[in-house]
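tool=predict chain=A
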Amino acid sequence: MTLEAASVVIPSWNGAAILRPTLDHLARLTGVEFEVLVVDHGRLNRDTEALLKEFDPRFRYVGLDEQLGYAGAVNHGSALAQNRLVAVLCNDVLVEPDWLSELVKASARAAVVTSLVHRPGFEEPLGKRLNLWGRIVTAEAAPKRAEDYVPFFPDGSAFLFDKSRLGLPFDSDYFLYLEDVSLGWRTWLMGESVALAPLSRALNADGGTTRRTPYKTAFFTERNRWLNYFSYLSCWSLILNLPPLALDAAFRLLAGSNRRAKIHAWAWLFFHPATIWGKRREKQAQRRRPDSQILPLISGRYLGNGGALDTLFRAYFRIAGLPYG
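tool=predict ok
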């Protein structure tokens, strides 16, 4: 069977130093025709452009002086991609030769397909789920087979989407962090689905640049988390979920880490109601699936340790009739 060609988009922020191993692995891909677009945004030098010249013409350089963030850079590259199927890969991720062909095969059953991404020092990702509060917790009942795992959102390090069904994947305003959760939520909301391609394996070497900006990390994580709530939850679901979400926000503030960034994020939300309303109207106009079918994909475990807070929040869910798994 001849597989459809695909494009690979790699956002890179002056990342030539960590990009070479990723490109070397991509050069060994088999089983599918492909192109690679490296979006070098916020560039300070020509190192990435010089690196790309060492590879064959399938590897295209896209240089931008403006720093677009992960979301904006991926969108820019996706708009330039020549193929309907677009894979997204972080510039510090190493893939196996059949990584892309397995994603393309799985695209027949879902609009978004995620790779099985491993990270040094972290547990097997199949035993984890996203909870309502944006944390990754241990699943109550992990699937015994990878084929039975239904992801709520793709791993932003390595995934593929169908541009003809979803358009550009991200809201560029997210800049970075939780835009992959937004993509997953929008996909399910639109009546489409997210699937895992368990034979599409990748290793996140964890050499990225975002760790150098802890304030931005905390700000965008907190702001984008709330943008997801305000954009995707129905009015009734949002009302019912506000008490546990607000209580969690208080806990996060009391925790003491990155307080200024979190307060900055909440202030941004307070002073941008028109922006939030516009995003909500856009997303809700795309709704083809009710929250009763979407929210069970999100874990209701708060910290995932079965402690008092988990018991408290799960009791609230039962009383409110919230359908969390």
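The radius of gyration is 20 Å. Residues 235-255 form the longest helix (21 residues).
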